[in-house]
Design a protein that fits this description.
Number of helices: 1
Strand order of the largest sheet: 1-2
Strand content: 5-15%
Shape: elongated
Oligomer: single chain
Distance between the termini: 51 Å
Helix content: 25-40%
C-alpha cells in the first residue's frame, strides 16, 4: 500500500471508532425498543418503535401520563419468557 492509501485507511478507522464511541455514549442514556404486545392499546400499538430514557427518573418522580417500562421474569403457560 502506498502512503496515500494508508492515510485514507487511518482516516476510515478513526471515523469508525469515533462513531462507535458516540453510539455507546448515546446508548447509555436511551434505549431504542419496540412494543411487543397489545396490552398498552390504544396508547401504543403493537410494533410501535420507542426511544426509552434510561436516566429519566434518577433525578425525579414519574409524572401523570408517563409510560413506565420495566423488565419482568414472568413466563407464559408454555414456559416461554414473557416480554
Amino acid at each position: 500500500m502506498d502512503k496515500m492509501n494508508m492515510n485514507e485507511l487511518k482516516e476510515w478507522i478513526k471515523d469508525i471508532l469515533i462513531a462507535v464511541v458516540i453510539a455507546v455514549i448515546i446508548l447509555q442514556f436511551i434505549k431504542p425498543t419496540f412494543v411487543r404486545e397489545t396490552s398498552m392499546m390504544p396508547t401504543l400499538q403493537e410494533y410501535n418503535f420507542l426511544f426509552l430514557s434510561k436516566q429519566a427518573y434518577r433525578f425525579g418522580e414519574p409524572n401523570p401520563g408517563d409510560i413506565i417500562v420495566f423488565h419482568t421474569n414472568l413466563k407464559t403457560q408454555s414456559g416461554m419468557r414473557s416480554f
